Amino acid sequence: MTFSLAIVGRPNVGKSTLFNRLVGKRLALVDDQPGVTRDLREGEGKLGDLRFTVIDTAGLEEATDESLQGRMRKLTERAVDMADVCLFMIDARVGVTPTDEVFAEILRKRSAHVILAANKGEGSAADAGVIEAYSLGLGEPIRLSAEHGEGLPELYSALMPLA
Ligand code: GDP
Ligand code: MG
């Protein structure tokens, strides 16, 4: 038995960085500039002895005529329908933004199985943002640093029951 995990969240929070870390191949582009990766990308994820499908959502980085909220809704609903669980990522150094709150609302309304991750969690600059993440009403956040590989044991613990 395996499962699928979709990584969702607003642009630039570190979704593709985590995808690349889990998949181990550079299947998704990572860049400082929003707009590099597009739509959905799938790879075989590996974390300890767990094997699963990872879906990186990137469609929001594209500039289109459609509103950001409309695209967020569509893309997130697609990810929720495709995946067994969504990892909803925020940037802990920035804290909770209005866009993050819209995502949280979509996920709650869709009754998605959500793992909340506060990324860029390395260092004390992330402390306040990690605490703010509780206000999203999606449970206890996992403090992650996708770039530095921190918080992976906690992510493992959250994913293990799904295997
Ligand atoms: P995405 O748009 O959500 O896919 O975000 P990306 O993975 O492309 O990352 C956006 C930027 O955040 C890049 O410059 C990454 O190097 C950086 N980043 C990703 N994870 C971390 C992290 O854990 N800590 C810090 N400080 N930067 C990160
Ligand atoms: Mg990306």
TrEMBL record:
Residues 3-163 form the EngA-type G domain. Signal peptide: none annotated. GTP 1 binds at residues 9-16, 56-60, 119-122. Associates with the 50S ribosomal subunit. Belongs to the TRAFAC class TrmE-Era-EngA-EngB-Septin-like GTPase superfamily. EngA (Der) GTPase family. GTPase that plays an essential role in the late steps of ribosome biogenesis. This is GTPase Der. It comes from Salipiger mangrovisoli. The lineage of its organism: Bacteria, Pseudomonadati, Pseudomonadota, Alphaproteobacteria, Rhodobacterales. The gene is der.
